[in-house]
Design a protein that fits this description.
Length: 416
Amino acid sequence: MAADMSSGLPTTIKRGTPAFRRANIAFFLSAFAIFASLYSVQPLLPIFAEEFGLDAGASSLALSATTATLAIALLLASWVSDRLGRRTLMVWAIVLTAGLGLLLPLAPNWTTLLAIRTLIGLTLSGLPAVAMVYLAEEMDPDALGFSMGLYIGGTAIGGMAGRLVSGILADWLGWRPALAILGAAIAVAALVVIVLLPRPHNSARNRLSAGDLVRLIVLQFRDKGLPWLFLSAFLLMGSFVTLYNYAGFRLALPPFSLSHTAISAIFVVYLLGSFSSAWAGGLAQRLGRRKVFWAMVLTMGIGVFLTIVPSTPVIIAGLAIATMGYFAAHGIASAWVARRALVGRAQASAIYLFAYYLGSSVLGTLGGYAWVAWGWTGVMLVSGGAIVAAMLVAIRLMALPPLPIAEKPAAPPAGV
């Protein structure tokens, strides 16, 4: 992948080459490992509450502490990658995450477990912050679409598998062996990534100063649409995580009394989310994002409120519908951010992800205390309230004037 000396242009990774296969295997496994690690504790929250003598809100910190740290670190990770290099940051991210994952089942108490999960949020940030940038820089245009799709598929499958494996194994063996087995699998994936991930040759070296980084972040909030999209990320993710965090608590109690294995199996509906995201993306491309986004948010809202019905099949149907609506809305909003960010696209994406994981942390924990106080009604106040607010944001975005295709990008801040 050295530069083409005859043309002076860098050589990208071509489809069908050994480098293409190596890169795709490495990116799929890294996405799988990172998101399996992130969400592996979600089905274990009721177990943590019982073992460590916690209420639902406190046990949710096992996930919320990770996502809060991840949210903050994402704002800096892409900036750090310009100094360390894309591959170096990604490799360290997955290696450190794997190491901390192996320590997690050895945690002697809740405080230690929470500290490890907080550090995992920091190490996790190195991959999602730069993975798509690496692919965009290194992949040939004909190969980019496939590689991006495979990476996104790895994140969805990793998140689902992490929940399934930890939940089912915890039911059979206990939560410590379950996390140990998952941690070992993530460590193996990390070793494969180190061996296979090609060294980048086309990385843009845009060494922003700290002041320039702040100015680019501030610039995103001057756009008429981006702040609303950031808010939608906070609300949608917060509603979605709250729904899933405490569905397990509810379904474990009478009259449902489902086992941890059965509750974990519900996460299979994440596959529906992957399909809905691709379908909605194509629909938004044809009809326009502002005409489709609100409908996907509404779909998610219908699913959220269906879970009020005290029937296992209806609750599962509600979770499935909410999942499809959520992934579709999230996919549209992510692409919308990239379209509207005329300057500082990496910073706009980082802010979107910051809001996304902050919503998971703040509303996810708030939902736990609402569950303790008012049961599923309290969860609906948080999750349902967030989705109603997201619907109002979606309606506001319908009135957003589109950016002219021929519009020139705004001038970046001085020095950028």
